[in-house]
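Help needed: design a sequence for this.
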């Protein structure tokens, strides 16, 4: 089974020039979804973190499944205004304008080691913002892992010295 066969390319979504990697066929197939989680888990099986931080929204799907697989806790990073309790926020630059990510103030303890999970690394801005947010409350990002890396966009560079793992990489 090749995971690539379960990822559907959608040209010009959500805007012209973007080739969107649609992971819903992978999620819809129990064996493909299981294989994706097993492969992600294998990438990070030497980690000593205790929690997975999943990034809205497809990072929740992979992050929560991985948390159960590895016996970790889970906490979400969401877009601004979505979390109900007190939050910390990090603003980051987009191609045009800015965006915010938020996390509950008590999602990560000072000194706690966590793993950051998302479905896909493109320019790296979202994951880099997540690492800044976690570090702003004293957390330690042991590794960042995604299912898909769009390597031609060079997003890894935004992660600095953080350990990075991907299951699939597109050049
Ligand atoms: P970036 O901040 O540029 O690394 O973008 C990563 C976030 O945007 C991830 O949460 C992805 O789900 C989403 N994303 C960006 N580009 C794509 C793409 N080509 N296909 C699917 N999702 C994408």
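Sure. Designed sequence:
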């Amino acid at each position: 089974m090749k995971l690539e066969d379960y990822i559907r390319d959608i040209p010009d979504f959500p805007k012209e020039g973007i080739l969107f990697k649609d992971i819903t066929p992978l999620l819809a197939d129990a064996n493909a979804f299981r294989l994706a989680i097993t492969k992600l888990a294998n990438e990070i099986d030497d980690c000593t973190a205790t929690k997975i931080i999943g990034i809205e929204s497809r990072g929740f799907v992979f992050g929560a499944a991985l948390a159960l697989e590895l016996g970790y806790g889970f906490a979400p990073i969401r877009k601004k205004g979505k979390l109900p309790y007190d939050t910390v926020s990090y603003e980051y630059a987009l191609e045009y304008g800015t965006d915010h990510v938020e996390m509950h103030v008590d999602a990560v303890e000072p000194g706690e080691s966590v793993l950051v999970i998302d479905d896909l690394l493109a320019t790296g801005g979202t994951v880099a913002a997540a690492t800044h947010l976690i570090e702003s409350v004293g957390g330690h990002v042991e590794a960042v892992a995604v299912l898909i890396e769009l390597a031609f966009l060079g997003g890894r560079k935004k992660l600095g010295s953080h350990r990075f793992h991907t299951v699939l990489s597109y050049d």
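The chain has one domain: 47-170.
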